[in-house]
Amino acid sequence: MSSAPGQPDTSPGTTGLPSASGLGLAFASAGATAYGISIVFARMAADSGLSGVSVALYRVIAMFVVAALVAALWRRLPRIAPGEGRAMIALALGGAGVGIGYMSAVTFIPVSVAVVIFFTFPIVIVLLSPLVDGGSLRPALLVLAGMAFTGVALVIGPGFGTLDWRGVALAGLASASATLQFFSGTRSPKTPTLAKIFWVNLAVIPACIIVGAVLGALDPPAVLTVAPAAVALLIATYMAGLFFQLVALVRASAVVVGLAFCAEPVVATAASAILLGERLVPLQFLGGALVVGAVATNVLMENRRSRALATRRALTE
Fold it and tell me: Which residue ranges does the record assign to the EamA domain (predicted)?
């Protein structure tokens, strides 16, 4: 059974889970884990005196340079596949929007609040999926998205008080941009991952510079030497996270990948407890269980869906 144009292949594999979708979910989980660990190293760098904007800028510059060097060594131009130009523009704009919105939001509202607002994007993806991908809205997915979002809120434990509307709007921009990024990522299956990494980071670099200039928060490159290990690990985990995210989006739907990425703040919180000695409260454990439960249930639903497709295919042959 072939999938619709621009959608991941859902033909069942030998494991019972659709081969492409199963790999996509695995890559998404790896990406969420890498991003979550990256947040801890970003915290270490910030504690050493680096601004958040500078951390974001230098990590995207590093990945852009690596992508350019790999392309040069392989003698491959970062070409965009025919017919995927619009999707790639949307992917790059989404990356820039996440960078601008997320980094700017924390200037006006607490980081925990910005994280919770940002992670509304899986719910938005579920709601928009029938319009973007076709089909009907599955209530079970909406419940899972709400369950995962509740878990994220409990893990982060936001302190909602008097909030600056600018911070809320900017965090909302980041959420909308992530939604755009995930949907567009599923619509560029023929463009090589290397090209995507090249163009996405090229778009994010000026976004970081603009935010840093406006906020007056750009540090010179020499500052990176104050925490070389943290910066190196931050860059490495960011590279892994972006790679797995882009690879996942051509193998699974935006809904599946988006729900899996709700694990990112859970991983970040757990890693902070392990590496930084932060103490967790029972509500945070409950939140983590909700997120893990939502992702696991989504896996079971995909498994059941693949078996139904396999049965239907066998009956029609």
Answer: 23-156, 167-297
